Amino acid sequence: MRASVNQKLTELGERERLKELLRAKLTECGWKDQMKAHCKEVIKEKGLEHVTVEDLMVEITPKGRALVPDSVKKELLHRIRAFLAQHAT
Amino acid sequence: MSSLDNSKLEGLAQEILSDLVEDACLGLCFDVHRAVKQGYFFLDDTDQESMRDFEIVDQPGLDVFGQVYNQWKNKECVCPNCSRSIAASRFAPHLEKCLGMGRNSSRIANRRIVTGNNTNNKSESDQEDNDDVNDNDWSYGAEKKAKKRKSDKNPNSPRRSKSFKHKSSMMGPRRRMDNQESPRMLMKDEAFPQ
């Protein structure tokens, strides 16, 4: 069931729309700026020349997940649930 | 719906959210990494003085970079073909006609040849290639009519004559039968005598 739902999510374009919505919300609430500031610290620490994508991923992802505001999470979940109600039964 | 299904769905929703958030984070990582490697990540941390050097210019006569943007308006160029001095803004059209290339130059040449032939037999086609004359799709006589049509096109709108005026009389690309009354014209006279 999970695979078919995921497939539908992509096929109907809803996944892309949700991604855009999330990105917009995160920028709006300042999450992106916060994370960029954190990135700057990491880069200054590791050195501009030597920083790799993996370095950033390791530093950014856990913190990023934790810092997503509840309101944003709520809104996204609302939309996801609506989609599931329509397409998962 | 049973509560088991509900909790399954809820779990699925949470999972989807988690995927989306991870996607956003990774997107940010890639953007930042690229910015670092391309050298534009720390661009907004420049010192005040350098920032002032690149501020937007807002003076009359200058563009936002501070460059003068209409200095070529009054310059003159020398045509390599006829060695005349031409204004810069008229240079490109002049060159088109002077070199005999471009969309209109062959039409103008044709017209000159025709009017040249009408007034005197020695036409201006001596100056340019005669190829243009031989390339006509229709005969010389029809071209005169086509020329006539062109001159009365302007006073009225070009779409004055609808398609069924030409439908029965269409022979060449630009021919018009002058002696054939169009259905439209007939209607005008007879339909509204009141």
From TrEMBL, chain A:
Record's GO cellular component terms: DUBm complex; nuclear pore; nucleoplasm; SAGA complex; transcription export complex 2
Protein task: Involved in mRNA export coupled transcription activation by association with both the TREX-2 and the SAGA complexes. The transcription regulatory histone acetylation (HAT) complex SAGA is a multiprotein complex that activates transcription by remodeling chromatin and mediating histone acetylation and deubiquitination. Within the SAGA complex, participates in a subcomplex that specifically deubiquitinates histones. The SAGA complex is recruited to specific gene promoters by activators, where it is required for transcription. Involved in mRNA export coupled transcription activation by association with both the TREX-2 and the SAGA complexes. The transcription regulatory histone acetylation (HAT) complex SAGA is a multiprotein complex that activates transcription by remodeling chromatin and mediating histone acetylation and deubiquitination. Within the SAGA complex, participates to a subcomplex that specifically deubiquitinates histones. The SAGA complex is recruited to specific gene promoters by activators, where it is required for transcription.
Family named by the database record: Belongs to the ENY2 family.
Keywords, in A-Z order: Activator, Chromatin regulator, mRNA transport, Nucleus, Protein transport, Transcription, Transcription regulation, Translocation, Transport
Pfam families, alphabetized: EnY2
Gene Ontology MF: a single term: transcription coactivator activity
Domain of life, source organism: Eukaryota
Localisation per UniProt entry: Nucleus, Nucleoplasm
A GO biological-process term: chromatin organization
Gene3D superfamilies: 1.10.246.140
Protein name per Swiss-Prot or TrEMBL: Transcription and mRNA export factor ENY2
UniProtKB/TrEMBL annotation, chain B:
Entry-linked Pfam families: Sgf11
Disordered: region residues: 109-194
Alphabetic keyword roster: Activator, Chromatin regulator, Metal-binding, Nucleus, Transcription, Transcription regulation, Zinc, Zinc-finger
Zinc finger intervals, SGF11-type: 77-98
Bias-annotated ranges (Acidic residues): 126-135
Composition skew (Basic residues), residue ranges: 159-168
InterPro entries the UniProt entry points to: SAGA_su_Sgf11, SGF11
Major subcellular location class: nucleus
Gene Ontology molecular function terms on file: transcription coactivator activity; zinc ion binding
GO CC annotation, single: DUBm complex
Keyword RNA-binding annotated: no
GO aspect biological process, one term: regulation of transcription by RNA polymerase II
Protein localization: Nucleus
Compositional bias (Basic and acidic residues): 175-194
Subunit and interaction comment: Component of some SAGA transcription coactivator-HAT complexes. Within the SAGA complex, participates to a subcomplex of SAGA called the DUB module (deubiquitination module).
Annotated PANTHER family: ATAXIN-7-LIKE PROTEIN 3
Domain notes: The long N-terminal helix forms part of the 'assembly lobe' of the SAGA deubiquitination module.
Family per similarity comment: Belongs to the SGF11 family.
Function: Component of the transcription regulatory histone acetylation (HAT) complex SAGA, a multiprotein complex that activates transcription by remodeling chromatin and mediating histone acetylation and deubiquitination. Within the SAGA complex, participates in a subcomplex that specifically deubiquitinates histone H2B. The SAGA complex is recruited to specific gene promoters by activators, where it is required for transcription.
Protein name: Ataxin-7-like protein 3
Species the sequence originates in: Pleuronectes platessa
Gene name per UniProt: ATXN7L3
